Amino acid sequence: MFESSLKQMGAALRAKKISSVELTQSYLDRMAQLNPQLNAFITINPEMSLAQAKAADARLAAGNADALTGIPIAQKDIFCAKDWLTTCGSKMLHNFVSPYDAHVISQFNNAGAINLGKTNMDEFAMGSSNETSYYGPVKNPWDTARVPGGSSGGTAAAVAARLCAAATGTDTGGSIRQPAALCGISGLKPTYGVVSRYGMIAFASSLDQAGPMGRSAEDLALMMNVMAGFDERDSTSLQCDKEDYTRDLNKPLASLRIGLPKEFFAEGMGSDVAKAIEAAIAEYKKLGATIVDISLPNSKLSVPVYYVLAPAEASSNLSRFDGVRYGYRAPEYSDLADMYEKSRAQGFGAEVQRRIMIGTYVLSHGYYDAYYIKAQRIRRLIAQDFVEAYKQCDVIMGPTSPSTAFKLGEKGDDPVQMYLSDIYTIAVNLAGLPGMSIPCGFGDNNMPVGLQIIGNYFDEARMLNVAHQYQLATDWHSRAPQL
Amino acid sequence: MIPYQPCLNIVFAMSLTTQDVEKVARLARLAMSPSEIETARTQLNGIFGLIAEMQAVDTDGVEPMSHSQDLAQRLREDKVTESNQREAFQAIAPQVEQGLFLVPKVIE
Predict the structure, then answer these.
(1) How far apart are the CA of A370 and the nearest CA of chain B, in angstroms?
(2) CA dist A56 to A152, A163, A291, Å?
(3) Are A326 and B2 an interchain contact pair (Cβ–Cβ within 8 Å)?
(4) Which residue of B lies nearest to A420 if distances are taken between CA atoms?
(5) Chain B partners of A379 at a C-beta cutoff of 8 Å?
(6) What is the pTM of this model?
(7) What is the dotted CATH code of the domain comprising B1-57?
(8) How large is the ipTM?
(9) Which fold has domain A6-254?
(10) Is residue A151 predicted with pLDDT exceeding 60?
(11) What is the pLDDT of residues A111-146, one digit of tens each?
């Protein structure tokens, strides 16, 4: 049952072969058994999950169930969920029981899905290994000495270990795709503006985007049907028609043109990763796709541009954490300024403080043009590269991450080394394009490799089609770690 | 506004000093000990070394891009949409009294 697709689970629930309470309880039992070694969840609340399951069973009995009614879905702890502790991986929010629901949470609630728990993450989504969480690092289910990637590492580990049917993530510079790759699961970052950011704790607002993480492209399509859509409470939510993301899953790939950016296949990629990616491209050729060589000449600048823009936006967003209205307040202080400074110094971890410092500096008087505006100009050059590329191809493919999962503590104290692990994913956020990662084999030490599929704006249905056809022809996505 | 080119020379000929880092920590409202300032200085200089790659790029005539869709901010009707939830919000506040958020005295 833990290997059933969302479609199969939904059918079993509607056919009364299993109740949502039974399904939810079996996941809770599995979590109780396996989560202690993985640390994939920050908060588990069986009482609240089972109450939702009971309500879902009533809805199933009444015959008005939706596709995901009764299915247990885990939520990244960046989404505010009413009456749930919502920490964003930080000590700053160690006591924040949210008084309201994020849009994504309401969408799942309206669909009758079960909130199975809040998944662990890098603090305020700043990290690529899940080691910056105040609640301890998440372990990769394929090898618990290794990282699951980040920042949605708890979600990726939970899905890979079958501790939930599917789960949510968020992606500012690769935080859905990189952990999906490192844990051998599928993940989709939609076009910027497709999923509402309301109630999703902000990191870098012009880049943040929520998306689904699951075991297959078909599961992601069903999740997207719930998550996507206009929401007036997010000023950057796009007014698009509601779409059915499953509509193109079964289209043949005969006329598909796949662009391979030469910059993604240059130095820097591990040879084990390269081998798996080349095999995946060969499989796509067998499925009828044509390969086109393309170039994204400015993509190499995406890491420096990102490390100006994202910290700048973060330093502004995180100024709201002041110990006054909610969250952590230092136990001792002399005056108001001292209260702010001590609460923030004690409430934020080292990586978050580092990024606030970078952001504060690049936005400060005298440096704004040289750093912030300069980065925004290069951001346009990076985005234009993709516009040119899509004149020649339908989707772009390459590696998601330069290496497979590295060991806990391996990247040590040098933040620059960690930042470079997002080298293939960041340009997609800067351009606002949709991107996904699907499992495409195993590299050294039997660790999963992810294939990145980058689509044109609003082309999620096609990307899911491209991924689904590959998953019909291969079985990498159905491999599960031994636990 | 500072002229572009001279500003660049100032920024990239130097690395951050202890005083620079202290000033940034103050602006960011982060209490830092002298040893934390030194660690931050080393790491920030490493990160700014990475960021410095940007300066070699010719961006003359390129418009800054702040949002991927280049759309104007959507406006909403000027009407009240939220109800008062003071009790729910103050239930999670560090310190409240008689419906007010308490902070250290600001004005003597």
Answers:
(1) 6
(2) 27, 20, 46
(3) no
(4) B50
(5) 64-65
(6) 0.96
(7) 1.10.20.60
(8) 0.91
(9) Amidase signature (AS) enzymes (3.90.1300)
(10) yes
(11) 999 999 999 999 999 999 999 999 999 999 999 999
